[in-house]
Amino acid sequence: MPELSKSVANIENKLVKPIGDDKILMFNSEIAGIPGIVKLTLGEPDFNVPDHVKEAAVKSIEDNDSHYTPQKGIPGLRKAISNYLATDYGVNYDPATEVIVTIGATEAIYTSLYTIINHGDKIIVPTPTFSIYMDDIEILGGEPVEVDTSNDDFKLTPDKLKDVLAHEGKGAKAIIINYPGNPTGVVYSKAELEALADVIRDTPLLVISDEIYSQLVYGEKHTSFASVLPGQTILINGLSKSHAMTGYRIGYIAAPKGFVDEAAKVHSFTVTCPSNPAQYAAQEALENGLDDPIDMRQTYQERRDYIVKALNDLGYETVEPDGAFYVFPKIPVKFNLDSETFCRRLAKEALVGVVPGDAFGDAGEGYFRISYATSMDNIKEGINRLAKFTDSLLEKIN
């Protein structure tokens, strides 16, 4: 195995060097080898891709669709995305000039940030949230401005946003909002979004709205931020969660043409284009599979209801999630354990894998994330083990 020569040992990008590994994946890997562990860690749907969607991918292969596609994505998929957004969320985008098909929502996030960030630019990030936002901002030379939402049921309020814009976030270029939220599962109502939009409107602030879990909402229908502030919103979505297509890696950006023209340059130089079979599968999902998420959503809701009640019965404070497939309980203060210590002990002593809250920003400290994208049998076993672990901690306190 070759070792990096000492003569080139210090050539790394100085913005990349300080960035650590993904804390979620790192912690999952750390505990994965514990024999008998029940993992409630990753946000990976436990459903299969619908058959008709798989068949579209196979047909693409059989039809020898093996050449480069247009860099923004095949026209049929971009049209399907445009139609879907118009029908479901009342937002209108020209498929030819205002939509880019990306390698998952992950690339959509990176491409969007790369397009706007200059060195030192501030980007506001309400936390706790998906940690990739902060890492991407830093790797691109920007400055993430974390806003703690833990005292407001994990939602950014207009008053707090005004305060941030007047102080630590003054001069910020954009704000990233993720809802339904990872790790909290919180959903913003239309009224809440309109109130935030009133603060942002006519300011030089872009909204990067990551709505990848929009098909997994259990109560009031999802409202897209783009519907209340279209001229300042970069909408990010994809098929990974709605159709259990995480491995197909199809996401998309929908935004005004002026932004898409620039983002398309970043996208084309970074990835060229997504794969043919995945794009045709995604087109089929959006054209003929809009009902596919219904059964998944019902199952997730049943799991959520079970977990939330069980956690509350055990004394864990929770904000009931209205979407996605996560619960974010608070670690009781009397346990006197930080999130990483709690989760490591839970894994080693009770054989239950969850994710420490500090993986989702500073505001996540003192919490842990449970993913219920797994079977009810696993969930029940995990909760039973958590109950015994909780009892053991309480016995030591008492």
Automatic annotation (TrEMBL):
Tell me the InterPro entries matching this sequence. Answer: Aminotransferase_I/II_large (IPR004839), AspAT/PAT-like (IPR050596), NHTrfase_class1_PyrdxlP-BS (IPR004838), PyrdxlP-dep_Trfase (IPR015424), PyrdxlP-dep_Trfase_major (IPR015421), PyrdxlP-dep_Trfase_small (IPR015422)
Catalytic activity, EC: 2.6.1.-
GO terms in the biological process aspect are: amino acid metabolic process
Pfam families assigned: Aminotran_1_2 (PF00155)
Q: Which PROSITE patterns does the record cross-reference, listed alphabetically?
A: AA_TRANSFER_CLASS_1
Q: Which UniProt keywords apply?
A: Aminotransferase, Pyridoxal phosphate, Transferase
Domain Aminotransferase class I/classII large, by residue range, is 37-386
Q: Which cofactor does it need?
A: pyridoxal 5'-phosphate
By its UniProt entry, which PANTHER family does this protein fall under?
AMINOTRANSFERASE, ASPARTATE AMINOTRANSFERASE
Which family is it part of? Belongs to the class-I pyridoxal-phosphate-dependent aminotransferase family.
Protein name listed in UniProt: Aminotransferase
Q: Which organism is it from?
A: Companilactobacillus ginsenosidimutans
